[in-house]
Amino acid sequence: MKPELIEHFVAHFDHHDARLGADPLEVSREMRERCPVTHTDAHGGFWVVSDYDDARRILQDPATFTNSKSVRVPAGPETRPLPPLEYDPPEHMKYRNIISKAFSPKNIAALEPAIRALTVQLIEQFRAKGSCELVADLAAPLPTTIFTELMGLPNADAEKFHYWATMINHQAHEGEGAISAGEATAQTMDYLRVILDERRADPRDDIATALVQGEIDGAPITDDDLNHMALLLFLGGLDTVTSAMSFMFANLAQRPDLRQQILDNPEIIPAAVEEFLRFDPVIMIGRAVGADTEIGGCPVRADERVLINPIAVNRDPSQFEDPDVLDFSRDANRHLTFGIGPHRCVGSHLARLELKIVLEEFHARIPNYRVAEGHTLHRHMNQVNGLDALPLVWD
Question: Region labeled Disordered — which residues (predicted)?
């Protein structure tokens, strides 16, 4: 990225601007060093936090930094909140408890054989070819298939689900026949309503059934809450692990020394997963200011928007020694990729397990690989960021 464009983003940070994808790391570093709490005029204005301690305090203080006014930055048109994410405590926990059992460590651990079998199946489909497009061939279908089965959605429509999630989360409206985020949202919700209606008539052992059978204060969940709750799970379950897995393999494809550490000592894989999560976080975390307060000495007013930039926060040198180095031996890896506090990601156990298994099974079969010659990695930015494609080759 040219110096003048870095200067532009430091002063006018905009995670929706496609140009930021060229080097969000350098922009984030400059912001953390020069203005760890700053205000940008993009989209009508919002605050950007690049300091770890301030970010942690914000996430643990839902009374002052609320989710109830939407976590999107900028807020956009007023829409129905997505429970439980866009509800504050204590209402938040009433909704979260309905789905938390499905994502408990015990229940997620029970999925390991199925996740491992699917991972091996996907890898074997391209292993002999000597190449793959990692995003399309593995990073997208693996978490999509696992989540659709958990949710109770037909796997035959998995490709459609991933398309909708991409259009919504990344606002990727390019290409022939592409639809807008609004259109994708409407189509997704129409589809989910049909599934929820089916579960009312025919309950099964899946999350969709848990939703329709759930109660809030002794009463069934309203249809509006139910539909939006299903939409939130759909968006969170189908896209974020894809991006995390893509970033992980992009790093490994360019670092044979890191691959060798995994090959020589597979026991480090859980620690490697945590380090990859720290190094390349996926979600830009938004909050609304609930009451006049301050962040890092800067006065902020009620109803203003705050964006926590985890790309900067997870590389804060006050918290992480040599933060720009991928270090699988890092102790006390207190990254904020999954958030912290009451809204900590409910699917974190599932994400960790999927990433762990894919590292184990991929390297057991394809130990040495590289990015295809001539390919330039393109990182797309938005509220959720990721890689468009990752072509890998091996001998």
Answer: 68-87
| % residues pLDDT > 90 (the chain) | 84
Residue 189's SS3 state is helix
Domain that holds residue 160: 38-393
320-377 residue pLDDT tens? 999 999 999 998 899 999 999 999 999 999 999 999 999 999 999 999 999 999 999 9
Contacts of 155 (CB under 8 A, 6+ apart): 145, 148, 149
Cis amide leading into 256 (omega within 30)? no
Classify 66 as helix, strand or coil: strand
CA distance 66 to 242: 28
Interhelix angle 348-365/269-279, nearest 10 degrees? 120
| Residue 344's CATH number | 1.10.630.10
69 in a structural domain = yes
CA–CA separation, 191 vs 188, rounded Å?
Answer: 5
CB contact set of 277 (below 8 Å; sequence gap of 6+): 244, 335, 337, 338, 355
Instruction: Decide if 282 is inside a domain.
Output: yes
* Neighbouring-strand partners of residue 220: 215
Q: Is residue 208 part of a domain?
A: yes
Distance CA 325, CA 330 (A): 10
Alpha carbons 89 and 28: distance in angstroms, whole number: 31
Mean pLDDT of the chain: 93
Let me know if residue 51 belongs to a domain.
yes
